[in-house]
Amino acid sequence: MGEVAVVLIGGTSHVGKSTVARALADELGWRCVSTDRLARHPGRPWTTDRPHVHEHYATLAVAELTAAQVAHYERMWPLVEELVRDALAPGRAGLVLEGSGVWPDRVAELTADRVAAVWLTADDRTLRARVHRTSRAEDRTPAERLAIEKFLGRTLGYQARLITEIDRLGLMRVAVDDATPVAGVVDRLRRLIRSRS
Questions:
Q1: What CA–CA distance (Å, rounded) separates 148 from 143?
Q2: N or C: which end of the chain has fewer CB within 10 A?
Q3: Which helix (H) or strand (E) holds 62?
């Protein structure tokens, strides 16, 4: 097996994927790309410049929001595969690719042995605190808070689906919380890369 050239970091919203991916990429001297940059769906409901996003959360049930998110990532997966193939080409720099669009069953179908994948997970309390802090939920109107709670419900529901699939496929996940230092998570990912190389 050749050395790992691509690290995929998945997980639900607000679990810390972007922060960890940037730190790992900086340490390795690799490119860092987010699946959010490929095609965003549809975003966070507390952004004031995108009223259609708020309406999306206001009009759909949490189960519908989660299903729409999964369908979006299915449509987006060919773009992820293309990035992975490009990064594995001879002479290319390494790649850390992070995002909620890194779905376990799709990753398991990748035949490239130079790809390592890990998912970050967090308990519900940690995710709730992070979403409320980021959205400034306490300063919002009741309608805005309802949309935020639906976003949180979607976030938790998506993670539950992820964990079921990760565990079913025997893939790696790392639990994080607000007391987990980024350096500690990066160290665990570095050990994963070494074990795969």
A1: 9
A2: N
A3: helix 62-88
Answer whether 160's CB lies under 8 Å from 57's CB. Answer: no
Residue 1, pLDDT > 60, answer no
**DSSP character string of 124-191:** HHHHHHHHHHHHTGGGS-HHHHHHHHHHHHHHHHHHHHHHHHHHHHT--EEEE-TTS-HHHHHHHHHH
* Short-list 89, 118, 100, 105, CA closest to 7: 118
- Asked whether the beta carbons of 189 and 24 are under 8 A apart, the reply is yes
How much is the mean pLDDT over the chain?
Answer: 89
The pTM is what? 0.92
What Cα–Cα distance (Å) separates residue 30 from each residue in 69, 118, 170, 177?
28, 17, 27, 26
Residue 7's φ and ψ, nearest 5 degrees, are: -115, 125
CA distances from 44 to 16, 81, 82, 89, 145 (A): 15, 25, 26, 35, 12
Which bin fits 136, alpha (ψ -120 to 50), beta or left (φ > 0)?
Answer: left
Q: Please tell me the predicted confidence (pLDDT) of residue 48.
A: 65
